[in-house]
C-alpha cells in the first residue's frame, strides 16, 4: 500500500463530497454521517439474519432476538461509498473507496484496515458470498474507526495535554532481555522522554506518571490523569515472552468493551476480570479505539515492525482511565533480533515518533469533529475527580 493511501485513516475513511467543503468541519461530519450512515445503521436492526448454516452454534440454540445480532458488511460499506472488489481467494472480501481499503476473512476474529489488523470479539461469517459481522463488533470497533461521530458523538475533550505513562519502575523492572541486560522499566522511560520532547515541540503539554526510576502503583497512574487535567492517557511498554523467543512485533491495546473477551484470553478465561463489568474507561470506547488504531498504524509505518494489531484488554490503567486511553507494547525484549534493535537510541526514537504521529493524527481528527467555538472542557469531569 502506498504511504499516501495509508495515511488516510479514521474519519477520513469516508469520502467527503466536495460540495460540502464550505460547511464548518463539525457540520460536515454531522451531515455526512446522518444523511448516509444513520439510515444504514438502523437498517441493520431490521434486516434478515444470515442463513442458518452460517450462524454460530451458540446463537442457533437461542430464540431469535428482537435486534438481529449480525450486520451485513456489504450493505454497510455500500452506504459509505465503498465498492466490493473481486478477490481470487474464497472466503476473503475486500472493500475500497477512493482513499481506503478494508478486508475481512470468513472465520477470522479480525478485520484489516489499511493493512493494520483490528481484533474483534467474534469471527466474521460468510453466507453465499455475503460477509457478516456481529453487531457488537460493528458498534464497538468498526463504527468508531470508520464513523467516529456516529459511534461516539463528540470527543470528550480537545487534546492539549497528554499524560505519558512509562510502564513499571523502581522495584518493578518489567520484562527483560537477559542477554542484552535490558530492563523494560528503563526503555519505557527513555521512549516516554523522547515522546515528550516531540509532543512539546508540536505544541502539546505533556505530563508523565514518573520521570525517574521509581515505583508507581498501577492504580495511581490513571488517577493522575484526572489530577493533572490531562486529555489523553498513553501507557508505554515492551513485551517479553521467554517461552517463545520468536514472538515479535508491536501491538496496541484499547479497553475491551463490556461483554467482549480480551484478545489474548481464551473463550473460557477472563484473567480474573468480570466480563460484563462497566468500567470508567468504557465511556470512551470510541476514542480509546480510534486513538489505539492511530498509534498502532503510525508505529507500524514508522518502525516498520510486524503488526500484531489493535487488541483489547482489561488492564488496570485502561479500565480506570478517566480520559481516552491506550497501552502500547513497542516490541519483544525476549526476541534477540528485536532486543538488538530496541537497544539502539535510533530505534527508540522511531518508536517515539510513531507514537507521536498517532497521537497527533488522533488530535487532528478529533479537533475537526469538536467545533472550535464550543470546546469540550479541559478539566477533569467532576465524576472522575479523586
Ligand atoms: Zn510492561
Task: Name a few traits of the molecule.
five-stranded antiparallel sheet, 2 domains, about 375 residues, Copper Amine Oxidase, Chain A, domain 1, 16 strands, Aminopeptidase, disordered N terminus, six-stranded mixed sheet, alpha/beta, 12 helices, binds zinc ion, single chain, globular
Structural summary, described in words:
- Strand 10 and strand 11 (182-183) form a beta hairpin.
- The protein folds into 2 domains: 3-152, Copper Amine Oxidase, Chain A, domain 1 (2-Layer Sandwich), CATH 3.30.457.10; 161-384, Zn-dependent exopeptidases (Aminopeptidase, 3-Layer(aba) Sandwich).
- Helix 5 packs across helix 9, helix 7 (184-201) crosses helix 12 and helix 9 packs antiparallel against helix 12 (345-369).
- The radius of gyration is 21 Å and the shape is globular.
- The protein is built from 12 helices and 16 strands.
- The model is unreliable at 1-55 and 373-386 (pLDDT under 50).
- It has helices at 3-7, 25-46, 57-61, 73-79, 135-146, 148-152, 184-201, 220-228, 285-302, 316-319, 336-342, 345-369; strands spanning 70-72, 83-85, 92-96, 101-105, 110-113, 116-119, 125-127, 130-134, 161-166, 176-177, 182-183, 205-208, 232-239, 250-255, 307-313, 325-332.
- A 6-stranded mixed sheet has the order 12-9-13-16-14-15, sandwiched between helices. A 5-stranded antiparallel sheet has the order 2-3-4-5-6.
- It is an alpha/beta fold.
- Residues 167-168, 174-175, 184, 237 line the site of zinc ion.
